[in-house]
Amino acid sequence: MKVALVTGGGRGIGRAVSLQLAKMGYYVIVNYCSNQAAAEETLAAINEMGGQGEILRFDISDKEAVAAALSGWQSAHPDEYIEVLVNNAGIRRDNLMIWMEEEDWSKVLQTNLHSFYHVTRPLLQPMILHRFGRIINIASLSGLKGLPGQVNYSAAKGGLIAATKALAQEVARKNVTVNAVAPGFIASDMTAGLDEASLKKEIPAGRFGRPEEVAAVVAFLASREASYVTGECISINGGIYC
Ligand code: NAP
């Protein structure tokens, strides 16, 4: 059994990634935090395609909760290991810096950046021991160019991109690759409140992207064929130059 874990796999980009990995033959652990119904729908869609997986609740920003969930899963599956990890779950709490409350700064850093440590670290050793692993981090255009109103989110995603590059160099010899993707504007619950009509004028492709268009790149990075690609951050943004 080849196992993949997708954090925030129940909705949006995470759902599209979960379905794509299931198509590749992965047993997909669909993590969620609050929306159990969406996670169950994703699992049902995987099963309908003839794939397999399970849902697993934990809050990626809570170190103890992550450790308990992952060690519980490993104890229940002593002969398996998670060979593909997609650090996808994330939130935004936008505001101009002068108005930004410390809680919004901390919550965004904890959920989008500290979670990378909480989830990746326990899964790294089995990948190294098995001499195969794929870690794919869902960063953002904001982490590359910085976006006004998103100082917290830009800091978290920029940190995630730098962490991707650093970790890639630590584990490359062990056949574990670490890459990021940086989506621009993708249609999902996260962007549902944005003014798409005005924003798409700034996008050369003239439209928001679809979660499946992100999932296709993640699938490539997860594949055996991507074995010599590591420490990269691939933009998926319809041609926005940054
Ligand atoms: P979304 O539709 O809002 O979904 C967010 C997902 O993250 C949900 O599955 C949610 O789980 C999960 N999540 C949030 N907080 C969590 C926590 N503490 N623990 C576990 N899971 C948590 O967002 P999306 O657009 O698919 O975004 C996915 C990733 O892409 C994020 O990292 C986001 O920053 C990044 N991204 C998105 C865009 C875009 O335009 N949409 C652009 C660039 C980057 P529940 O369902 O349980 O709430």
Task: Give structural notes.
With 242 residues, this protein is α/β, with parallel strands linked by helices. The protein has one domain (3-236): 3-Layer(aba) Sandwich (Rossmann fold). The chain has eight helices and seven strands, in the order E-H-E-H-E-H-E-H-E-H-H-E-H-H-E. The chain has a seven-stranded parallel sheet, sandwiched between helices. Strand 1, helix 1 (12-23) and strand 2 form a beta-alpha-beta unit. The chain is globular. 42% of the residues are buried. The model has no long low-confidence stretch (mean pLDDT 98). The structure holds NADP nicotinamide-adenine-dinucleotide phosphate.
SS-based class: alpha/beta
- Global mean pLDDT: 98
CATH class (first level) name: Alpha Beta
Strand count, sense and barrel status of the largest sheet are:
7 strands, parallel
Going across the biggest sheet, name each strand in turn. Answer: 3-2-1-4-5-6-7
Assign the CATH superfamily.
Answer: NAD(P)-binding Rossmann-like Domain
Q: Could you say what the CATH architecture is?
A: 3-Layer(aba) Sandwich
**Straight-line N-to-C gap:** 40 Å
Shape category? globular
Number of helical elements: 8
As a percent range, the share of helical residues equals 40-55%
What is the CATH third-level topology name? Rossmann fold
The kinds of small molecule bound in this structure are: NADP nicotinamide-adenine-dinucleotide phosphate
